[in-house]
Amino acid sequence: MNTNEERTKQETVCVVGLGYVGLPLAVRARERGYRVIGFDVNEERNALINDGKSPIEDQYLEAKLPKYRFEATNNPERIREADILLICVPTPVDELHNPDLTPVENASQTVAKNLKKGALVVLESTVNPGVSEEIIAPLFEKEGHTIGHDVFLAHCPERINPGDDVWNVTNIPRVVGAFDAEGLARAVRFYESIVDGEIRPMKSIREAEAVKVVENSFRDINIAFVNELARSFDCLDIDVADVIRGASTKPFSFMPHFPSCGVGGHCIPVDPYYLIERAKRAGFDHKFLRLAREINNGMPEYTVELLQDALNEVGLPLNKTGVGVLGLSYKANIDDLRESPSLEIIKHLKRHRATVHVFDPHIKDQSTVSSLEALLEASTALILATNHREFLSELPPEILKKHGILVFIDGKNAFDKKAYQEAGIVYKGIGR
Ligand code: SAJ
Known about the structure:
Elements: H1 4-10, E1 12-16, H2 22-31, E2 35-39, H3 43-50, H4 59-64, E3 71-73, E4 84-87, H5 102-113, E5 119-123, H6 131-142, E6 151-155, E7 174-178, H7 181-194, E8 199-201, H8 205-236, H9 240-247, H10 271-281, H11 287-297, H12 299-313, E9 322-326, H13 341-351, E10 355-359, H14 372-378, E11 381-384, H15 389-392, H16 397-402, E12 407-410, H17 417-422, E13 426-429
Parallel strand pairs: 1-2, 1-4, 2-3, 4-5, 5-6, 7-8, 9-10, 9-11, 11-12, 12-13
Antiparallel strand pairs: 6-7
Helix pairs in contact: 5-6, 8-10, 8-11, 12-13
Bound molecules: ligand SAJ.
Ligand SAJ is lined by residues 158-162, 215-216, 219, 223, 257-258, 260, 263-265, 267-268, 330-331.
């Protein structure tokens, strides 16, 4: 019987989808001794990877990709070489917030058409409970594959946290569910060979799918709670950040979350809709999850209302006033603007005919000015939408005064309110 090391050396892994989830996974499998093929439809991305360059800003990739090289291809025939297939493609929602499973269906179809008999196929993409049984399995059966014989299907929801320097593909614990005992054992064995952390087998594939949407819905409702507190405390003249810090001194059963100008990214504002939509089809209405989404989706507009109130204090209309939006990315120190609150804020500003300037040091090609200096020069009011490290040290009150900034809306409560007020700048945070 092969040892684990011998087995990993002989097995070929194919990662389908080389984005912020698939690429680190492929590198990690290489690092742990698997032969790895990367499959992605984006030839530009494949060329960069084949050059040992990371198309994504990520500490683990920058350190390991040049050393643990693998071939990236868009030739589906190569999928036939793999004993283990990991599907890591996006699962966005459409403009009506309905889950769009097209990428997952297309990727599964490609794998089903190019499957090595007996291979293990693991879906890492976030899906609503039931997708593996209702959509993925039938795609394989249609290609003549018997689940549990020709193919072993499992689900291991991705837990990548972009920009996190501590938790990454090497050490984040995982949950795994499968259709049958052999599929589960093989999937657990694979993840135990690449992750230095707990690999928790789930009762079935449906529970594994539910874990991810539950984790992220938990985060969304907790953020909605503090966002609602922020709006209430703005009326009560209470500093919500101070209250959260105070509540955090309780060493048990309190978990701090923080109000902000909005909830962005490809996980938190998206995953709850997966559960809402699937439960609705089964006859249950997640009123609470829907309300949390409504509260969080309302924060960009609320941020612009705070700006209007602040401009009124200095006798200025929003119309034609120069407003500088600091940051496009949905969270600090990364270059990802998917579902970013900044985009909603810009939309509301333009609806009020403000003159909008945008600068994000991580997304310069979508900024409207080339530097922070240029943005400050052109603006009378600022909205901090993303607390990038570059902003935290470069916006002291005296700099804002020098550039004639009259109003500062701190969408991430990242700055010292008192310092700006003492400099004569109208400062408003979110709930403080
Ligand atoms: N946000 C708040 N208040 C908070 C926390 C976040 O307004 O207290 C906002 C952020 O500004 C951002 C959005 O919510 O716009 C999402 O932030 P996030 O920190 O949750 O970052 P994500 O989207 O990268 O979420 C990932 C998730 N990881 C996976 O789904 C695998 C999530 O489960 C993690 O909890 C999260 O990282 C994390 O903890 O950083």
